[in-house]
Amino acid sequence: MPDFLPPFDNLLAVSVAKALVPLAQSLHKLDIRISPRCKQLVERHAPKHTVIASNHSDRFDPLCAYALARDCTEEFYFLASREQFDQNLGLSGWLMQQVGTYSVMRGRKIDEPSAVKTIDILVEGKRNLVQFPEGDVTGRNDFILPMKEDGVRNMFEAQRRLLDSTGESLYILPVAMYYKLMPDAVAAIGLSIEQLERWFKLPTLTEANHESKIKRLVTTFIEHLAKSYDLKGEQSVSLSEQLRTLSKVISIITADANGISYDADESEDLLLYGVRAELKQTSRDKQDLSTDDLDRAEQLLILASTLESQSFTDEIAWRVLDRLEKELTGKVSNKGHRIAFIDAAEPVDLKPLYLEFERNPAIALDKVDRQVRNALTSLMQDMQKVANPDLVSSAT
Length: 396
Fold this sequence. Notes:
15 helices
């Protein structure tokens, strides 16, 4: 398959996909609740040049974004990492393209075709564009990662072209998603723990809480992988640090095995993305042999990020177990019902910021990043209060 995969304007496929959203929600036991304010803001900016920028805390975020398009009777374009298009022998990618999704190759180099397409979409304004500017699933409700600088630069380039042609503004609409577990999902956590304990043949800890049991599972998982890759783990560092180190080592092993150059001082995620991008240039046989290792390295980074949350809530427990199940058993259990709350804040107008971007790009990029992240953080905090009123009343 080619490196860049463009979106298609297949309105029939979009209509079918929208019709299937309720079925997908039912299958995954996910109740999606979109605030009236969010709908109003999305509908108000439908004919305008807008990037819908969302946090990316959960693997069901794309389903939530599509439910937003359905409920607002809009068609969106979506940006997704290139590797997702290769799943299920490329069938997943073909379907994604039909409903308006296009690819970006993450790595050391800018994906020029993807950047050009992004800018063209924003300037044309036929559909609004949904992005997850953190870049990958974080597993966290308490922190928003910095927006990818290249993505924000693309937005400013689109704003420049709009100023040169029509004088219109480009907007970034912050849309936040917050998930809450229902009682049956909380109960299912215990069953998932028991299943994974049996997988590892671990004795049951009858007096331990969920956090202790899950962290024991993660520790055992790390030891299991270390043996598979003939590595020695460092027990003195935190679980998240061990996971990040293990991810980096797997990326390096994959690079060495395929003759791919790398910078060992790069961060774990940049190293992974760089190796994955270079691997696309090798033979299909090499890609097939190494893809599973790089997918695992990515899952380790998501697990590490999730475990770096400030508090170990039931939602964090659910997400850690969800990742462990997939890695260990090859599938995930249906762990009860959840609610996804979706809300939006007033958009950021790039037009008044463009002159500052021309004078000092770093300051303008930082300003946009802070405005969007602060808006998303505030939205998530507000939705947490709505989702957990008992916690608010007990705190006061």
